[in-house]
Amino acid sequence: MEETEPDEVDKLKAKFMSAWHNMKYSWVVRTKTNFSRNSPVFLLGKCYHFKSEGVVESASGCRDAATDSEMVLCNVNQFRKDFITRIWLTYRREFPQLKGCTLTTDCGWGCTLRSGQMLLAQSFLLHFLGRDWLWPDALQMVALETELFKAKPPTMNDDVADFTFLPPLESPLQDMSEQLGLSSNEKQTLKLNPGNTANEDEKFHRKIISWLADIPAATFGMHKLIELGENSGKRAGDWYGPAVVAHILRRAVEDAVEPELQGITVYVAQDCTVYIADVIEKHLQVIESGVPKSSDKTAVVILIPVRLGGEKVNLEYKEIVKGILSLEFCVGIIGGKPKQSFYFVGFQDDSLIYMDPHYCQSFVDVTTKDFPLESYHCPSPKKMSFSKMDPSCTIGFYSHSEADLEKIIDEVTKVLNSPSSKEKYPLFTFSSGHARDFDIDKLCMPKTDSAAQLSEIPRRKAEKLSNEEFVLL
Prior knowledge:
Blueprint: H1 5-26, E1 33-35, E2 41-43, E3 46-48, H2 68-85, E4 92-93, H3 111-128, H4 138-151, E5 163-165, H5 172-180, H6 184-190, H7 200-211, H8 222-229, H9 242-255, E6 264-268, E7 273-275, H10 276-283, E8 299-307, H11 318-325, E9 330-337, E10 340-348, E11 351-355, E12 361-362, E13 382-385, E14 392-399, H12 402-416, E15 429-431
Parallel strand pairs: 4-12, 6-8, 7-15
Antiparallel strand pairs: 1-5, 2-3, 2-10, 8-14, 9-10, 9-14, 10-11, 11-13
Helix pairs in contact: 2-4, 3-7, 3-9, 4-5, 8-9
């Protein structure tokens, strides 16, 4: 009897905490995200201008004789389509119980894992669908916000934020349709089409989401990531740092058995150094199945755990972070602010644009035919000042081939050595050769966050805080 009492106490505690977190993170504060038309917006390597003369290359739907207002709307909507297409992973509730505990939700502790999932999802989108692919139903979500935008024309004063994005809701389409006062027929017209699986792109879109779902069988779902985290001394409910999440993602991709995933792998930088020969070695791995016969190489997702300062972020790194997010090879940054993890995807001026996992949504059973996709796409971005960023983060790049790797090295090196950077030492470096040539492998046993972060070399003495101090609640 005495042996079972602690289990009952743990169950009761878990139920109480789950109920509290479900309530806390299901509540959405109706704050707005302001964007200015005066400055360009960068989103994962693409640049958007919210002025009539700044039509992006992909905005083919704009009319030649469009008015300034129509041009601005066209540019804004192109950005919105692009942002909404990114896969959004948030807290979920009432999913199958996690192994070894009573938890059926990750509310309050899983946001760094969710940020890692979003970065991995973006890598898969690039790998299977390409950077220019847009989710067809994003157009319908954009149509609603366009009506809101037209209802309140933006001011032409470039010195102020002249339009806003509304935050996501449990049912964003329903909420916006109510604001617009649409009829039942109009609402039905704007309803998302969950069964749009006719083409191969949409099938891959759904497949990527299913790989990240909250079921035990999902290759990159929360259940799998928690299981892999045990090798790093982590359990469900613990705090996860961005460096440990990088190693968990690497192991998850290595363990993947799906034929399609045999064409992609993950490399995690060691001691803030990317060893080029090791990345090339991963590119040259022989593919046995699942990819076109013309391809005999794998793509590599390069993850680089870094610190951007000591207790607080060093503002000297601001331009470097912005430069990295403006590169076409970048798949985002697993970061956040103290105690909260976000997935950074872009910036405007000195504010970072991010996707927020701190929103509790209901479990979606992806094993059902035509499962709803709406909750996996965020209708509105959020912004945060760079100065609020936590210094601990993991930067991601996608390299499709050795040629891509050369471009990444060239472009990133230019950013790291840019005149705007006053830092004496680069944030990270590229080194020829293998890590084993420098006996680095023996020093990189990712058992804890601190084991996966920067080594304690003299120039980093001021930045030796453990990654355990970063992570969520």
